[in-house]
Amino acid sequence: MVKLTEVEDEHFSQEKPQPSKHNVLLASDDEEEDDYTDTESEISNEDDVELDGESLSDRLAALKDIIPPSARRSFNNTVSNVTSFTKSGLSFSGKALWVISTSAFLLGVPWALAYAEEEQYIQMEREQGMIKGANEMLTPGTAPTEEQKASQPSL
């Protein structure tokens, strides 16, 4: 835990401020305007501070007291609301992705297979038509085939 100790300035501990003319401590006289600089005072050494006994969590816990409780409460509420919104959004998007992908597999795969089969049939008909046209061009004077006879009306 962090311990606070009050360090008094040497100047103030040796000389107590005396009230001036009218019992006012902060009255400014022309004589008292000299700035006081304490060049002999010692800056606290790092040896005085005991950091070995503190962990990072102890230091962070001590920082908690800097923020007022109302600000901590509002920050906590904001973080919990954002966390809740994020969780619900991710949950909804995961469920929606599952529904869309499942529907695509159940409806899309059979449709794609049927479409590919239909394209094969169309391609086969084109090939047969091309073969038939090539045969007619190679043998122009031949007798009509049985299929052609059946399709011609009789007189």
TrEMBL record:
Major subcellular location class: mitochondrion
Chain intervals for the UniProt region annotation (Disordered): 1-51, 136-155
GO CC annotation, single: mitochondrial outer membrane
Keyword Transmembrane attributed: yes
Biased composition (Acidic residues): 28-51
Bilayer disposition of the protein: Single-pass membrane protein
Protein's name according to its UniProt entry: Mitochondrial import receptor protein
Organism of derivation: Aspergillus nanangensis
UniProt lineage: Eukaryota, Fungi, Dikarya, Ascomycota, Pezizomycotina
